[in-house]
Amino acid sequence: LQARGRSRSPASELLRRRSPEVPKSPGEAKTAASKLKASSPSSLKMVASGSPLGLFAFSVTCILLGIVNAGISEPTLANLALSHGLFFGGLTQFVAAMWEFAAGNVFSATAFGSYGPFYLSIAAFTWALEAGLYAAPQEIDLALYFMTWCCFSVLIWIITFKLNKALVAIFTLVMLLFLFLAIGEYSVAFHKLAGWVGIACGCLGLYASFAMLLNVTWKGEFLPLGAIGSHGGETTAEKV
Q1: CA dist., res. 20 & res. 124, Å (int)
Q2: Helix crossing, 188-218 with 165-183: angle to 10°?
Q3: Nearest to 62 by CA among 204, 206, 208, 199
Q4: Angle formed by the axes of helices 51-70 and 188-218, to 10°?
């Protein structure tokens, strides 16, 4: 009878085996807590922000294409600008977007992951057209193409009002750039104006990307980005 009283049922034995081992002393409890903390995702090394790199790529390419559209340079600069847009403007922005997704920065990942392929599409379109792979598009085709990107930029611009004033200004110029490019299909003056807007947008983007990189590297707010709302005083690029 005593043997039967001490025996455990299969269910209770299974629960006993699955239950975690309780530390027997404060020292063991502290060790277990340290192991748990070390294995938690929050202790993993953070992925560096790709915002400065992506914005540098966007801005430099924007300036080069702006110079071409404004008619400042010789037409031969166009192929060099497109080659630059293919690699630095397009691929680099796309890579930066993937880093931003890994870092948890959804806005910049979406922006770089969109405008990077835009540069890629422009380069591919121009070279395929020059190679005679298809007929030249009509003016209305390119106007609708640029207007579509203008509408997309409006949506991105709205979100920037929760980030900083530098991005608000940049995407204001991006909207105008696509609008003027669309109108520029019917007007040489607006096409050149789009070039100057692109140059201004690129210069402002260079300032913002340099400010992000400087503030993060030197760990302080040395160049302001124009914080909005509760983001004042933050100096890292992770909020972009």
Answers
A1: 59
A2: 160
A3: 199
A4: 160
Q: 89: which residues sit within 8 A by CB, 6+ positions away?
A: 57, 58, 60, 61, 62, 116, 119
Question: Is the alpha carbon torsion for 184, 185, 188, 194 positive or negative?
Answer: positive
* Cβ neighbours of residue 205 closer than 8 Å, sequence gap 6 or more: 55, 56, 58, 59, 62, 170
* Contact status, residue 66 vs residue 198, Cβ threshold 8 Å: yes
Classify residue 162 by its DSSP letter: G
Taking each helix axis from N to C terminus, what angle separates 77-84 and 106-130, rounded to the nearest 10 degrees? Answer: 140
Give me the pLDDT at residue 4, please.
47
pLDDT in tens, 33-57: 555 445 444 444 577 899 999 999 9
Q: pLDDT, tens digit, for every residue of 181-206?
A: 999 999 999 999 999 999 999 999 99
